[in-house]
Amino acid sequence: MKKWKAALFLCGFVVYFTFSESSPALAMHITEGFLPVKWVIFWWLVFLPFLFIGMRSLIRITREHPELKLLIALSGAFTFVLSALKIPSVTGSSSHPTGVGLGAVLFGPWTMVVMGSVVLLFQALLLAHGGLTTLGANAMSMAVAGPLVAYGMYRFGKKWNISRRWTVFFAAFFSNLATYVVTSLQLALAFPDATGGIAASFLKFAGIFAITQIPLAVTEGLLTVVVWNFLSTYSSRELSQLERGV
Amino acid sequence: MKRSLLLLVVAVLLTVAPLLFIPHSDFGGTDGQAEKTIQVIAPHYQPWAQTIFEPPGGEVETLLFSVQAAVGAGVIGYIIGVYKGRANKREEAK
């Protein structure tokens, strides 16, 4: 990276830290029991078809291209690591990256639906983080919306010939943000504000978390690019196979 | 490789900076705060389900989170190693 770019980044951080202030923030995943029953059922019903598509896509890829299993495992492991890292943010609270961007860029959005859901299930069962009743809603945000946005960014970058590294960075960045936007929306739908309704409630939920999440999204983007760099150095063959589509 | 190192340094800086810039904060999880926001908007809402298993105490929870991260990191390291080995072999074959 050139010197002026580094300087620009530094200025950006200084401005950011000067103007961001401490405020309560919100939601990585919706805690067990914190969604009303009808919304639990609703989000599970919305989520199940995606899970089905995801399973089918995963089975198809592993059957037709067994040599790609290693890369699938890598994408899954990446989500596993990143969602275990609770990272402090500028608002004085912690949240965590999702890590679904990498797999979505490599395999398209559907494979990561399964991976993300497995991670959520693990955290719901063993870590009391998220929950089984809220799993449908949490999976929609982290395992469906996140990968879809990442894949959209990837296609966008490819179409406009943006450098692959930046494309991967922004795919991860926006997939992280998308996850939390959807979570806020879900909470706003379930808990509309008494006076302002859903919109006011959404702003309340989303407006606060946005600041917490932005530096984490940047961190997630950077870590995703690091792994991407490794892959493009050592497994260019698999990557170009995926480029052509599996 | 140099570039990756730089990216990692920036990631670490981004993580450490809040700790330096914001004193008097315990950096609590955001999901806990979401619960509080819900209680503000809907004070009469009662959570109707409980987690089946909750790690007894912060230490065990930390252990489980570390295990999760360690397993993932191990897998990533192994797979990148496999790819590097293959790449080296291809080089030698040339």
Written description of the protein model:
The complex is a heterodimer of chains A (246) and B (94). Chain A is mostly helical and 246 residues long. Chain A is built from nine helices and two strands, in the order αααββαααααα. Chain A has helices at 3-19, 37-64, 69-82, 100-107, 109-126, 135-159, 164-190, 197-234, 236-243; strands spanning 87-88, 93-95. A two-stranded antiparallel ribbon of chain A has the order 1-2. In chain A, helix 2 packs across helix 5, helix 5 runs antiparallel to helix 6 (135-159) and helix 7 (164-190) packs antiparallel against helix 8. The radius of gyration of chain A is 18 Å and the shape is globular. The two termini of chain A are 33 Å apart. Chain B has 94 residues and is mainly α. Chain B is 73% helix and 2% strand. Chain B is built from three helices and one strand; from the N terminus they run H-E-H-H. Chain B has helices at residues 2-21, 30-41, 57-93; one strand spanning 28-29. Chain B starts with a helix and ends with a helix. The mean pLDDT of chain B is 84. At the A-B interface, helix 1, helix 3, strand 1, strand 2 and helix 5 of A face helix 1, strand 1, helix 2 and helix 3 of B. Strand 2 (93-95) of chain A pairs parallel with strand 1 of chain B, so a sheet runs across the interface.
